[in-house]
């Protein structure tokens, strides 16, 4: 404990930190296009499109062919393994298309959730086996950041101490391994919005989860400046009867982060969870307008909240490609404004201006 | 773990947060005047003054009645005895301090005790009856408290036990204080004794602080109503390598950025064995460090505010003004330093560090 055995050289650290900072450059966030085959199946199903490799390639193409307008909005794209090796119609690799726009390429590296025996339906995430070698390969294939998702749920007895400790530990192990190969780990401890708990409860649980996470990161000697955090926003449960304003969500979220996330972390890239495109943008905007001191970038890493309209417009038809891509560009531009606190559009709850300055739960 | 059982009301939290912010308001820091009777004995011995209760009262009176220090001093830490002493005109010291717009603090720990089975490591005692003592101290005028834990760097220390145990006792103390509207200053001092280099101190400081903040989270401590009193990250006293003030500042701020959540309103450094000038210059360098610092970075100095004043006094009443002048001088210097505005008058050891600046240096 008292002697340092440096895990990284100074130049390795420099590379990691620069990559992280580039992804969260002011005005930029992440396009999470890493839906697994199963998840893509659900999306394509909703628009009546068959879940084939070709269709998945076609849809990612809709997103990746966006013109230079997204260069100032998107700092990174998270890929699923299959997509990392696919090409556009003209044969250009997706990786090259993204890199040519000066956007960082990321890769989802976890292998999904598995149950934690003896708990009330809780899980951990697998994927550590051979991760060191996989990271080396991904780095060669163009990735310089990665993503790993853990899941928590709020219930009467959850999240349990075991779940918090185990997931924090596995996230720290994953981070440590990634950094050995110059890959910036995005750490995602998602607390699901399922349930009827209120905002305060979500805030409390988020604080406990994040505190455990950063202790584990310290224990595993992870270089924080070369990491990003992808947390849930602090919101009430889906079936909570109380409604909260965007400012309340923002205040609760920023307060939780201020109590747990060391300033050395280069950026916080929120997941959108079940939020609609507009909700996710309005919340992100409110977060960036929160008057508390926020020493990290606060931006987006959105999947559905960037793609929903594009998907619905595309419906699997090649002739809809242009219009569908426009929908994506629009959301990218809106979120680019939101992550700078400059988004003025949006008709989400203008009536509940229940702003509570310095509110501390 | 998944349910919150709030024990502080919104008003209680606001009170704690307001007190903490008041102490570390821009330009302000803390006068640590909480030397125990035994510690005062050592100070007085160096100026050939008898360690009597009256002499201790006279000396503290000089500090507490010094002019023009209000913009520099946000809080004063008292030793128990001093909290009940009075000025020559019969005013209780805490009242005097409060009247002058400064916050009154009280040292509440009861000293270090050995941790069996370790290589000379310690924990700190004082939790027994602390709840009741805090209630009384609050009535008697105290709005913040201080508790010091000690860790040391050697080949085998600090051990995991020392880190965990001290982090835990600091969190218990903090939790108890907050129940009575008292802001806990958490002091996990890593001693500068040894020949270890800057990197080693930084590494140990990061581990210790990570454990402290995990413990504070586990004990449900309200961070916005606390302050941190850490050591600066410096090389050991007998380290052959010398480091510039900028390197010390960079190492210190880096360690803090990796461990101290932004919710903590202020970091009030201890001066350890540093000279008055060194402590001021290092504080200044930290406030000029280009890395983003979301907390106030200021001082909680004992010797580094009092050394010259003590010497000027020499135990003689006719030296009262000279003593106060020295103290005021140091208070003003540190007030500038905690805003990054201190310009050294070229005292020995201060110059020559600027050229070794390493931008964005990360150990």
Automatic annotation (TrEMBL), chain A:
Protein origin, superkingdom: Eukaryota
Example GO molecular function: fructose-bisphosphate aldolase activity
Pathway: Carbohydrate degradation; glycolysis; D-glyceraldehyde 3-phosphate and glycerone phosphate from D-glucose: step 4/4
Matching CDD domains: FBP_aldolase_I_a
Entry's transmembrane regions: none
Pfam families: Glycolytic
GO biological process, one term: glycolytic process
E.C. designation(s): 4.1.2.13
Catalytic class of the enzyme: lyase
Record-given protein name: Fructose-bisphosphate aldolase
InterPro entries in alphabetical order: Aldolase_I_AS, Aldolase_TIM, FBA_I
Keywords: Glycolysis, Lyase, Schiff base
Family membership noted in the UniProt record: Belongs to the class I fructose-bisphosphate aldolase family.
Reaction(s) catalysed (UniProt annotation): beta-D-fructose 1,6-bisphosphate = D-glyceraldehyde 3-phosphate + dihydroxyacetone phosphate
The keyword DNA damage is annotated on this UniProt entry: no
TrEMBL record, chain B:
Keywords from the UniProt entry: Glycolysis, Lyase, Schiff base
Record-level Gene Ontology MF annotations: fructose-bisphosphate aldolase activity
Keyword Ribosomal protein on entry: no
Entry-linked CDD domains: FBP_aldolase_I_a
Keyword Cell inner membrane part of the UniProt annotation: no
Species of the source: Umbra pygmaea (Eastern mudminnow)
Assigned protein family: Belongs to the class I fructose-bisphosphate aldolase family.
A Pfam family this chain is assigned to: Glycolytic
Protein name: Fructose-bisphosphate aldolase
Reaction equation(s) it catalyzes: beta-D-fructose 1,6-bisphosphate = D-glyceraldehyde 3-phosphate + dihydroxyacetone phosphate
GO BP, sorted A to Z: glycolytic process
């Amino acid at each position: 404990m008292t002697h340092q055995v440096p895990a990284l050289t100074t130049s390795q650290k420099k590379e990691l930190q620069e990559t992280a900072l580039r992804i969260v450059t002011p005005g930029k966030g992440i396009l999470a296009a890493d839906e697994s085959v199963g998840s893509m199946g659900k999306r394509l199903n909703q628009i009546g499109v068959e879940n084939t490799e070709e269709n998945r390639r076609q849809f990612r193409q809709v997103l990746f062919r966006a013109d230079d307008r997204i260069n100032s909005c998107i700092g990174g794209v998270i890929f699923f393994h299959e997509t990392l090796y696919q090409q556009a119609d003209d044969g250009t690799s997706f990786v090259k298309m993204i890199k040519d726009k000066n956007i960082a390429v990321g890769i989802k590296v976890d292998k999904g959730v598995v149950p934690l025996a003896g708990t009330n339906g809780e899980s951990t995430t697998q994927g550590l086996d051979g991760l060191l070698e996989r990271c080396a390969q991904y780095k060669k294939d163009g990735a310089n950041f990665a993503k790993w998702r853990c899941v928590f749920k709020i219930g009467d007895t959850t999240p349990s101490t075991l779940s918090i400790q185990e997931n924090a530990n596995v996230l720290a192990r994953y981070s440590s391994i990634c950094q050995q190969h110059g890959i910036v780990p995005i750490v995602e401890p998602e607390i699901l919005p399922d349930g009827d708990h209120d905002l305060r409860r979500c805030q409390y649980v988020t604080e406990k989860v994040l505190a455990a996470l950063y202790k584990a990161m310290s224990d595993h000697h992870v270089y924080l400046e070369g990491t990003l955090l992808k947390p849930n926003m602090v919101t009430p449960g889906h079936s909570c009867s109380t409604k909260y304003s965007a400012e309340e969500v923002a205040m609760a979220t920023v307060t939780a982060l201020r109590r747990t996330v060391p300033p050395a972390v280069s950026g916080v890239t929120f997941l959108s969870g079940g939020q609609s495109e507009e909700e996710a943008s309005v919340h992100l905007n409110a977060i960036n307008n929160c008057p508390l001191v926020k020493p990290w970038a606060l931006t987006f890493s959105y999947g559905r909240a960037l793609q929903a309209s594009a998907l619905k417009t595309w419906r699997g038809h090649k002739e809809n490609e242009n219009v569908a891509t426009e929908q994506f560009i629009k959301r990218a531009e809106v979120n680019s404004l939101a992550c700078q606190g400059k988004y003025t559009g949006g008709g989400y709850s203008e009536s509940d201006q229940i702003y509570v300055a310095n509110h501390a739960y | 773990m998944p349910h919150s059982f709030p024990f502080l009301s919104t008003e209680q939290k606001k009170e704690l947060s307001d007190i903490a912010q008041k102490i570390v308001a821009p330009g302000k820091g803390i006068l640590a005047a909480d030397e125990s009777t035994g510690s005062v004995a050592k100070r007085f011995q160096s100026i050939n003054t008898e360690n009597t209760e009256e002499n201790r009262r006279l000396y503290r009176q000089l500090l507490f009645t010094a002019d023009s220090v209000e913009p520099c001093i946000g809080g004063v830490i008292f030793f128990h005895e001093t909290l009940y002493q009075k000025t020559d005109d019969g005013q209780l010291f805490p009242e005097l301090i409060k009247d002058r717009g400064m916050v009154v603090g009280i040292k509440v720990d009861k000293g270090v005790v050995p941790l069996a089975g370790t290589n000379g490591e310690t924990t700190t005692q004082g939790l027994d009856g602390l709840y009741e003592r805090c209630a009384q101290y609050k009535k008697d005028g105290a709005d913040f408290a201080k508790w010091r834990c000690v860790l040391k760097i050697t080949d085998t220390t600090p051990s995991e036990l020392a880190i965990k145990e001290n982090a835990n006792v600091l969190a218990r103390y903090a939790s108890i204080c907050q129940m009575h509207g008292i802001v806990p200053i958490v002091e996990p001092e890593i001693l500068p004794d040894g020949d270890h280099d800057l990197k080693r101190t930084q590494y140990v400081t990061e581990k210790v602080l990570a454990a402290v903040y995990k413990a504070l989270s586990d004990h449900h401590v309200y961070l916005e109503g606390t302050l941190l009193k850490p050591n600066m990250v410096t090389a050991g006293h007998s380290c052959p390598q010398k480091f510039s003030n900028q390197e010390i500042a960079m190492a210190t701020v880096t360690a803090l950025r990796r461990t101290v959540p932004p919710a903590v309103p202020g970091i009030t450094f201890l001066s350890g064995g540093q000279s008055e000038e060194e402590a001021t210059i290092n504080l200044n360098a930290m406030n000029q460090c280009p890395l983003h610092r979301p907390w106030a970075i200021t001082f909680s100095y004992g010797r580094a505010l009092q050394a010259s004043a003590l010497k000027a006094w020499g135990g003689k009443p006719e030296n009262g003004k000279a003593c106060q002048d020295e103290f005021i001088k140091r208070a003003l210097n540190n007030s500038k330093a905690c805003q990054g505005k201190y310009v050294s008058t070229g005292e020995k050891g201060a110059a020559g560090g600027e050229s070794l600046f390493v931008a964005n240096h990360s150990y």
